[in-house]
Specification:
Blueprint: H1 7-10, E1 11-22, H2 62-74, E2 78-79, E3 82-83, E4 85-89, E5 99-103, E6 109-118, E7 140-153, E8 157-161, E9 173-177, E10 184-190, H3 197-214, E11 226-236, E12 246-251, H4 254-273, E13 281-286, E14 291-297, E15 307-308, E16 315-316, H5 319-327, H6 333-344, H7 348-355, H8 358-367, H9 373-394, H10 405-416, H11 422-435, H12 439-445, H13 454-467, H14 469-476, H15 483-493, H16 500-512
Helix pairs in contact: 2-5, 3-4, 6-7, 7-9, 8-10, 9-10, 10-11, 13-15, 13-16, 15-16
The structure holds zinc ion (ZN).
Zinc ion binds at residues 29, 32, 34, 46-47, 49-50, 182.
């Protein structure tokens, strides 16, 4: 099978996403007063409404509608003042009512867009001459239209035990937990504007940063509170008619989204190049085997018998309500990233990572309160490298660590003032995380402060130059990289305490003299 980006030179991939997000931060479910929590005993959070008992009547959760309106505004959608809830019928035990309450043709949020900035290796997936203007470094920006964001309720969680190779057979026992049934769920549908797996991944990441910043969900792809399906079809470059699409289901990580789409694009190209036919079907990505397999042939909308829910009155939003939602939108990740770059001189990648997580942004802002740009850039560096690495390894969130902004600031000060080298900085971070001690105290207790006094370093440099005649010859012969070896010798002689930058300067000056 040919691989990306080679395939995309001949074929245009047309990709659309459907992104489900549970509104995990709300206290109650969508249409009843049951708690909206995930840690309860199975089937503890249930009532006649979410179990679909005869005569039970639903009442919409106003806080959920506030959340989705804020999501819509942040995604540049037009908020629809008049919309309705619909019933989508199907038979499966995960929905006791035999229908899911969702929205009809008009959703609360319609016709939005987000702009994607694509750079680095991922930008190479989109070949030149395919409708975007690339900068000299290959990066580009492309808009992605959002058709709608609608409100619906989630289904129960099912656990199938037994059976063969994951298939449900007569030997399977199925357990149902209705705690999730009826919990508030948003679904965002994009127009098929994405052209590469990387663009799809970046869209999901951007949306996740926005939802996290709005505080409407914990957006955990791992735990399924944020999940997405990808629709993908191919057409020959220059063709305008859409090809038959397949749908990739239940993607649970950004990597799976990218790799699953990449595989599916290459698979479709191979089928089409061999004269085969693509069937409209739902496929499942198996990361361990690196392939997609058929789940089922797709239902059409008609099969669901959608009609307005007679138990729920049409929903009218007032200008006042929409203005109230707009007023509660905090500074969004892109604006925050730009501010960090302008005010603190952060690198774009660092600024984006910090601004994308509201807890991390709050941590950073506390650490750099009243700081200069050089100090702030060092703080950002410690957060993006040392702290993030530590949190990932420990499997905890920034809100769960005992490391404080003041400690990170103290470590950054030692680094920015050259009191310790970056290697020592990593060591001090580890000791700080372990002991909870202040970095300055750790450095003093271990005598780690690096020597930045030229008078003390010069004799070491002279001794190294005297003993390494061979390397000095190489340097003067044009091999400038040998200076790295000489710095290493100086560091060794100073027992790791000399300032490597200063050693480098002194060595270079003497060698060039
Ligand atoms: Zn309930």
């Amino acid at each position: 099978m040919r691989e990306l980006p080679d395939v995309l030179k001949d074929w245009e991939a047309v990709i659309g996403l459907e992104v489900h997000c549970e509104l995990t931060t709300l206290e109650t479910k969508m249409f009843c007063g049951c708690p909206n929590t995930h840690d309860a005993e199975p089937n503890a959070n249930v009532c006649p409404v979410c179990l679909g008992m005869p005569g039970a009547l639903p009442v919409p959760n106003k806080a959920a509608i506030e959340s989705i309106v804020r999501a819509g505004l942040a995604c540049n959608c037009e908020i629809q003042k008049h919309s309705m809830f619909y019933r989508k019928h199907y038979f499966y035990p995960d929905m006791a009512k035999n229908f899911q309450t969702t929205q009809g043709p008009v959703a609360f949020c319609m016709y939005g867009h987000l702009d994607l900035d694509v750079a680095g290796e991922g930008a190479a997936e989109r070949p030149d001459g395919t409708g975007v203007d690339k900068a000299a470094d290959g990066s580009y920006t492309t808009p992605v239209r959002i058709l709608r964001i609608h409100m619906e309720e989630d289904a129960a969680k099912m656990n199938h035990l037994g059976g063969e190779e994951g298939r449900i057979t007569s030997a399977t026992e199925s357990l149902i937990d209705y705690n999730r049934c009826g919990t508030p769920l948003t679904e965002l549908v994009t127009e098929p504007d994405l052209r590469t797996p990387e663009e799809a991944r970046l869209f999901m990441e951007k949306l996740r940063r926005i939802y996290l910043t709005l505080g409407i969900s914990d957006c955990s792809m791992e735990h399924g509170s944020m999940r997405c399906d990808g629709n993908v079809s191919l057409r020959r470059r220059g063709e305008t008619r859409l090809g038959t699409k397949t749908e990739l289901k239940n993607i649970n990580s950004f990597k799976s989204l990218h790799d699953g789409l990449a595989y599916e694009i290459c698979r479709q190209a191979e089928v089409l190049e061999e004269g085969g036919v693509i069937y409209q079907e739902t496929r499942h990505w198996e990361p361990s085997r690196r392939r997609t397999v058929v789940m089922r042939v797709k239902e059409t909308a008609d099969d669901y018998r959608l009609f307005p829910d007679p138990d729920l009155a049409p929903y009218d939003l007032t200008d006042e309500f929409i203005a109230h939602c707009a007023a509660e939108i905090p500074e969004l990740p892109d604006a925050k990233r730009d501010r960090y770059m302008a005010d603190f001189g952060l690198k774009r990648a660092d600024a984006e990572q910090i601004a994308g997580d509201p807890d991390c942004a709050a941590f950073f802002e506390e650490a750099v309160a009243g700081e200069t740009t050089k100090g702030a850039a060092t703080v950002a560096n410690v957060i993006v490298n040392d702290l993030t690495g530590y949190l990932n390894a420990a499997g905890i969130a920034i809100s769960e660590t005992s490391i404080t902004p003041a400690q990170v600031k103290s470590l950054a000060d030692l680094l920015a003032s050259d009191a310790i080298s970056s290697n020592q900085g990593r060591e001090v971070f580890g000791l700080m995380a372990e002991s909870g001690d202040d970095p300055a105290a750790i450095v003093d207790a271990r005598g780690m402060r690096q020597v930045s006094d030229t008078g003390a370093l010069e004799p070491i440099v002279d001794a190294v130059l005297a003993r390494c005649g061979e390397q000095v010859e190489q340097y003067r012969g044009g091999n400038k990289r040998v200076v790295g070896f000489l710095v290493g010798q100086c560091m060794k002689d100073s027992k790791g305490k000399g300032n490597p930058k200063l050693f480098n300067q002194l060595l270079t000056a003497k060698l060039e003299a």
